[in-house]
Amino acid sequence: MGDSHGRGGLEELRAEAVTCRACDLWRHATQTVFGEGPPRARLVLVGEQPGHEEDLAGRPFVGPAGRLLDEALVAAGIDRREAYVTNVVKHFKWEGRGKVRIHQKPSLEEIRACRQWVDAELSALRPEVLVCLGATAAQALLGRHVRVTVDRGRFLESPLAPRAMVTIHPSAILRSPDDQSRRQELARLVGDLKMAAAALRGAGRA
């Protein structure tokens, strides 16, 4: 598996991941959905897994949760084109209900099987700030003890990046019971992303 820094390393990894059979999720997914972004991105955002639209498009965060993330990034003053977005699991896990494919949470074994890819992405990128979106990504990358409700709003120690943090996954905001809750959670996500943006500005002056 390639681990060189920059575009060549990421493109090599993406090509290798297409044929990954480390777990059985590939059997029912349309394709591998690898990370996307510039090869020297200073900010990396990691979610759980691709969803229905991502599975069809072969690109991360292009569905409803991705569009909400775009909205939050703009509000936080972050250009998504300068960030790298990916997931800890690269195939869509789902179950069918009629003609609809319903998201299913990946198992610990599936997360472990896919961990090689996100580790390789982070090794190639060497980001200054790592943002874990949701509990699955946070616990996979930062430890099983990490809780979004407890640990958001501060930076956590991690060998994966000088600054690591956790926040809510945009899909959780979409499941909010009412508009007021959705607005409040979106504002909190924007606040967390503003903290990441401030850290990047500080690192840029260092």
How would you portray this structure in words?
A four-stranded parallel sheet has the order 2-1-5-6, with helices on both faces. The protein contains eight helices and six strands. The protein has a single domain (7-205), classed as Uracil-DNA Glycosylase, subunit E (3-Layer(aba) Sandwich). A hairpin with a 2-residue loop joins strand 3 and strand 4 (100-103). The protein has helices at 7-17, 52-57, 64-75, 108-125, 135-142, 148-151, 170-174, 179-205; strands spanning 43-47, 83-87, 94-97, 100-103, 129-133, 163-167. The model has no long low-confidence stretch (mean pLDDT 94). The radius of gyration is 16 Å and the shape is globular. With 206 residues, the chain is α/β, with parallel strands linked by helices. Helix 1 (7-17) packs antiparallel against helix 4 and helix 3 (64-75) crosses helix 8 (179-205).
Concise structural overview:
The protein has about 210 residues and is of the alpha/beta class. The chain is built from eight helices and six strands; from the N terminus they run αβααβββαβααβαα.
Note the topology:
Elements: H1 7-17, E1 43-47, H2 52-57, H3 64-75, E2 83-87, E3 94-97, E4 100-103, H4 108-125, E5 129-133, H5 135-142, H6 148-151, E6 163-167, H7 170-174, H8 179-205
Parallel strand pairs: 1-2, 1-5, 5-6
Antiparallel strand pairs: 3-4
Helix pairs in contact: 1-4, 3-8
In the CATH scheme, the class would be Alpha Beta
Question: Terminal Cα separation, in Å?
Answer: 33 Å
Low-confidence stretches: none
The overall average pLDDT, rounded, is: 94
Count the strands? 6
Elements, N to C (H/E): HEHHEEEHEHHEHH
Strand content: 5-15%
Number of domains: 1
Rounded to the nearest angstrom, the radius of gyration is: 16 Å
Q: What structural class do you assign from the helix and strand content?
A: alpha/beta
Give helix % range: 40-55%
Largest sheet: 4 strands, parallel
